[in-house]
Amino acid sequence: MDKKKLITVIICILIVALLTLILINRTNIISHHTCDAESYSFSFKGSFKGVKKVVIKSEELGRTSLPFEASTDIFDSDDFNITFTDINADGAKDILIPCLYEGEDTFFSIFTAKDGSFVYNEAMRSLPFKSSSEGIIYSEYTQKEIIAEATENSPEDYILTHAIERHVLRDEKLITLERRAIIYYSESNYYCYSIYTYDPEYDELTYSDEKWFSREDVDKYTLNWD
Question: 194 Cβ partners below 8 Å, 6+ apart?
Answer without folding.
Answer: 179, 180, 181, 183, 207, 209, 210
